[in-house]
Here is the input.
Amino acid sequence: MGLKMSKTDKKIRNEFSEKLWTLLVGLGLVIVLVSSVIFAVKDDEIKVGAICYHKFYTQAEAEDGIEFSTYTIWVEEFENHLKYLEENDIRVITVSELLDYIDGKISLPEKCMLLTLDDCDISFYKYAYPLLREYNMKINAAIIGNRSDGAQEGNAYREYYCSWDQIKEMAASNVVEFGSHTYYLHDREGGRTGTMQMSDEGTKTYRKVLINDMEPLNQKIQSVVGYTPRFFVYPFYAVSMPSIPVLRDDLGYELLFCGNSDSTFRYCGESVHTTNYNPFKKGEEPADILVKRYTPRSGDDFAELIKTIFEE
Ligand SMILES: [Zn+2]
Here is the structure.
């Protein structure tokens, strides 16, 4: 054989380099294609943080002897939160905007925030709602049916919760989107915590309990604000996994709000999302309709909380 290459060897070698060249070009194309697909998907995925509020406090509440609970924050703190979100270009959205994004109807920036309000305490109407209007921001508020019934003139809850008239007024402003927080189940009576399934309760009975409680609330909300609620908030952050198909399929709620891992996992023992934010993709049904929320406490560093939520 020696060092000289035969004609056949050269031919083989040329064929080999041609093949190698084709292979490399092909491989390059594949890499370009795959990475463009990956980046396209990434572009369509947004990070949705969610925050939960309950009560707002001023000197007036202190003078009235209203308790400052772990769920209460000062009105000034709430205003600082709104300022922070505005200054840091975090888009504050409603549940319906997020659902429009999921349906592929609108685009949203990569970082969005769902502000949520549990219970519709009267301090929400008095202090938070005017600030939201001032800052042109929106909130998603969950109504407890029997508390707002009781808040009508002359009733026991008058001074503690938003009345249906106030709810109607806020809905008309488009600053607040209303959702369901149960009619009568926001309680710990009879051995049940909120909407949790009881240990001795069959699936059929449990389903009936949820439907009998919330169908009338859906109708009441529809009659007051003009739309059926699209989201549900679990009382006490307590998630019962068997409730999910009932809330979604029978009651029509498209998103279900719970707490973060510390509060929610205690009840359901299952993962909500592995991230602190909730990932959603444009035009794609979410695998999980549970939305993880964080509750800022009075004195908390809000900037730190936002960094934690978006994992920065
Ligand atoms: Zn609540």
Observations:
- The longest helix spans residues 7-44.
- The two ends are 65 Å apart (CA to CA).
